[in-house]
Design brief:
Distance between the termini: 47 Å
Radius of gyration: 18 Å
Number of strands: 12
Largest sheet: 5 strands, parallel
Shape: elongated
């Protein structure tokens, strides 16, 4: 059983998510705007936050930015806007998933449970360090440095990058990457992976060349 914070100014949306979450044994707390969500998070800790983007008082992106200053609680954003810019902005803030309204409650619960499983898995990471020229990846410490400078990535960027590095030289299909990194049978927006790859390449700078696009297949991490 997990503690879920649902943040949405629409009562109907909160109620339907709560109904499904409680049915699966989760405990639910509600907030109707970003300001309330921030105050609640200062007093309580949660296993996951479901946050709407467009809300009165304070929008979801701003609330997420404030919460991220003190907490790394997984966050799934809800929005009626499906533009790539909004998704990129959310992922840059460190959210774990982005769901476009209208959504299937069952699909949302699959995403919630997948994020909860991954964040609470606690599986041991192989103590190893990968190096290629000025690129260094410390899997144990979750640290990536480029030419001696530590770079910051979102949680999903770390997961995606680490998986690709550990499978260096192997052609990874889009389906395989989504299944291994997101942890569920993906049937939502198929641009989610591409958006993360774009952000990852931006973070890697000159070493973005190591992520090779395999047209019609997927991607491969390669050192030249």
């Amino acid at each position: 059983m997990s503690k879920i914070l649902i943040v949405d100014d629409e009562f109907r949306i909160r109620e339907i998510i709560k109904k499904y979450a409680v049915f699966e044994g989760h405990t639910v707390t509600e907030a109707q705007d970003g300001m309330s969500a921030i105050e609640i998070c200062r007093k309580e800790s949660f296993d996951i936050i479901i946050m709407d983007v467009m809300m009165p008082e304070l929008d979801g992106f701003s609330a997420c930015r404030e919460i991220r200053k003190t907490s790394q609680t997984p966050i799934i954003m809800l929005s009626a806007r499906g533009e790539e810019y909004d998704k990129i902005h959310g992922f840059e803030l460190g959210i774990d998933d982005y769901v476009v309204k209208p959504f299937s409650p069952k699909e949302l619960m699959m995403r919630i449970n997948a994020v909860l499983k991954r964040s609470g898995a606690g599986s041991a990471v192989v103590q190893d360090i990968f190096k290629f020229e000025g690129l260094e990846v410390n899997f144990t410490a979750r640290i990536v440095t480029v030419d001696g400078t530590r770079i910051e990535m979102t949680p999903k960027e770390y997961e995606l990058f680490f998986y690709m590095v550990k499978n260096k030289g192997i052609a990874l299909t889009r389906e395989k990457l989504i299944s291994e990194v997101w942890g569920y049978d993906f049937f939502g927006d198929d641009r989610t992976l591409d958006t993360h790859i774009k952000l990852l390449r931006k973070s890697l700078g000159n070493y973005s060349k190591c992520i090779v696009t395999l047209r019609g297949v997927g991607y491969r991490f390669e050192t030249f």
